[in-house]
Design a protein that fits this description.
Shape: elongated
Order of helices and strands: HHHHEE
Strand content: under 5%
Structural class: mainly alpha
Radius of gyration: 22 Å
Number of strands: 2
Helix content: 55-70%
Length: 143
């Protein structure tokens, strides 16, 4: 590993660590009850539900970011960037088009990682007959 690669790897790991520490601190600051004086604005049961959602979303974010970092480091150390560079240069385009093809392919591959597996629900409808909110507010988008 070259010194530059080591610096980049340490930077990636340090950035991930700082983000995780920030998320842990945010999780520790969540409370089930609304702050004093806020009970009239936000019902306590809905506030508690929103805090539960924030906890679940943050915990899922830990897994998601760890997998993303693992894929990035794996792609890097298995020679994926070099292989992709050779493939893009093989088309014989100029440097700007080759660079655009390289970045576009990376973007496409990253988007493929975000596609849910077959059978994963894309959204769920949660009706609430007493609600006065527009119907679109009842959709909980997962993706």
């Amino acid at each position: 590993m070259t010194p530059l690669a080591a610096v980049v790897l340490i930077g990636l790991l340090a950035t991930q660590a700082v983000e995780w520490v920030a998320e842990v601190l945010n999780l520790r600051s969540l409370r089930r009850d609304p702050p004093p004086g806020f009970e009239d604005v936000y019902p306590p049961d809905r506030y508690a539900r929103s805090q539960d959602y924030t906890r679940a979303k943050t915990k899922f974010g830990f897994v998601s970011s760890a997998v993303g970092l693992g894929v990035l480091v794996g792609f890097w150390f298995l020679g994926g960037f070099g292989t992709l560079d050779i493939w893009c240069r093989g088309w014989g385009f100029g440097p700007v088009t080759t660079g655009t093809l390289f970045l576009g392919t990376l973007f496409f591959l990253k988007q493929l990682l975000g596609i849910p597996s077959p059978g994963t629900p894309r959204f769920a409808w949660r009706p609430n007959s007493a609600s006065t909110e527009p119907r679109s507010k009842h959709f909980c988008w997962i993706v």
